[in-house]
Give the backbone structure.
Amino acid sequence: MLRSFYDRVIALAEHPKALWWLALVSFVESSFFPIPPDALLIPMVLAKPSRAWTIAAVCTVASVTGGFLGYAIGYYFFETWGHSIIEFYGLQQGFASFQEQFNKYGLEIILIKGLTPIPYKIVTIASGAAHFDLLTFGVASLVTRGARFFAVAGLLRLFGQPIREFIEKRLTLVTTAFVVVLIGGFVALRYL
């Protein structure tokens, strides 16, 4: 079933209204959809490198906007819809621990998890369930999602097809390296 969804999303990248499809996928992925927007972002940037920044901007704005839907699901409907989404991903056991950590380190979690391949919907739903400050959530989401999508678009624009293969094979490594650099920056700012 997941493979079928993935194949459909890839086919959307070649559609004349691909930018609209990217916005839709980015929006719903932040709250419940299982396929990340990278599945459209990558082939779209490779097809039209000159539009990389526009593609990344649409992806970012739609993802952050969809994040507010995920937040609302966690805030208002966690016991019904939110819990069902967490169960769908098989994360029930880890979610309680995640939520406890979220209450202590919410901003840091949004900034770090928003950059990783961990489903962002988990972060958005947890933010709402924890009643995390909405403005802080929005700004942190914009920073983290923008950094992720603009980094991918920039690398693809600069390096093209070889970087696509590298990212797809080593997405976790690339994301982890970026997170380490980001955390290092925060540590340096705090202690210098």
